């Protein structure tokens, strides 16, 4: 009698969110896809608040920097090639123009500032998510990023990190991005709701 052994389903490359020294970090919803949800886009959505904030903050930063010829702002999971077999994504990245190239590859030079909205990878436990959050921060700072801004929509909190500091902000605080550039998440939401 021959036993039939099920071969594990190969995990498609497009379900990999980031790569850490050859170890893939999958999108949070990748298991739903593997369990039969063949609609790729439905497996990895961001919530409306997350997507809206990303657009609003990127627009606001671009507005502040519109006459500035030194910086370039990107949004939408900018790929950052840290080293061989290691890459991370950034929801919003602010590059010095000298460190930015228009091509179809991940950036090999660091942005000055990375803004991330929520942790998007799949982790088996909260402890593993926290460990990778800290590891990603360390990797980005080592890569040359000067400041990382994490916006957490649940709980509503913002953390700003540099090599020498870590500051937590309340949701309704005005958060400095760079000289002359700041945002207030609650004020943006209030304005949206007033205009509705």
CATH topology-level fold name of the largest domain: tt1808, chain A
SS-based structural class? alpha+beta
Supply the CATH class of the largest domain.
Alpha Beta
- What fraction, in percent, of the residue positions are helical? 25-40%
Q: Write down how many β-strands occur, each being a DSSP E stretch of 2 or more residues.
A: 10
Describe the structure.
- With about 200 residues, the protein is of the alpha+beta class.
- It has 4 helices and 10 strands.
- The protein has 2 domains: about 15-45, no CATH class; about 50-195, tt1808, chain A (Alpha-Beta Complex), CATH 3.90.1570.
- Helices cover about 25% and strands about 30% of the residues.
- About 25% of the residues are buried.
In short:
This protein has 196 residues and is of the alpha+beta class.
